[in-house]
Amino acid sequence: MKSVWATQPPVPIPKDSIQRIAKQVTADATKGKSVNVSRDTPLSVEGTVSLFLDAFTRCARCGIRGGFRKEDDDTVDFVAAVANLRATAFHIFPLQSVEEIRSIAGAIVPAIATTNAIVAAAVVQQALCMLGMNERASRFAAPQMVYVRRMPQVRRRPFPEVCGCNASLINNSNNQRNASSDSIHREGARKKRWITDLFLVHSTLPNPPSRTCFNLP
């Protein structure tokens, strides 16, 4: 498995170190001492392990399932500890403080909810377009592909009818495949067919174009 990693493979935290820190956290808990971890400064590896054990214990004692809230110190401590432990295993340094991770996680969760709402609205809109296809005077536009992008997805230019390359086509009528450029030209005389270069968005040479990107009438 080490050969498949483009960079240095992840290394787990030594088990002996975790057990040593766990014993110290348990001893402090029996004496009524809490884990002393600064929230505003980057955590060390030992501080991260201590915070993870303490936050896990606090979350387990609650016994109530709930969503992530950045105002909840218990869940924020747990997320911050897990994130820093993973960063340590994958050699991502420096580690971040609890407050930095609180701000990052607090921004990601609303962004996911907003994206889900946008996708749901697009699905409903296209469903209305499909329902109105059989109506003569529909107030909805024709169904179209919707991309969740910051910029509009513009259809790229079509290839000319005489294409100087071979292309693999799917013909639903006669199930013809691997047609050459000459056969494409002859078929185009009878029935105009276009192949768009949308595959340039999805693949790069020498990968073949995706079949889903073919624009066949």
Automatic annotation (TrEMBL):
Q: Does the keyword ATP-binding apply?
A: yes
Query: What Gene3D superfamilies does the annotation carry?
Result: Ubiquitin activating enzymes (Uba3). Chain: B, domain 2 (1.10.10.520)
**Which pathway?**
Protein modification
| InterPro entries assigned to the protein according to its UniProt record, in alphabetical order | Ub_act_enz_dom_a_sf, Ubiquitin-activating_enz
One of the record's GO molecular function terms: ubiquitin-like modifier activating enzyme activity
Which domain of life does the UniProt lineage start with?
Eukaryota
UniProt entry keywords in alphabetical sequence: ATP-binding, Nucleotide-binding, Ubl conjugation pathway
The protein's name: THIF-type NAD/FAD binding fold domain-containing protein
State the organism named in the record.
Trypanosoma rangeli SC58
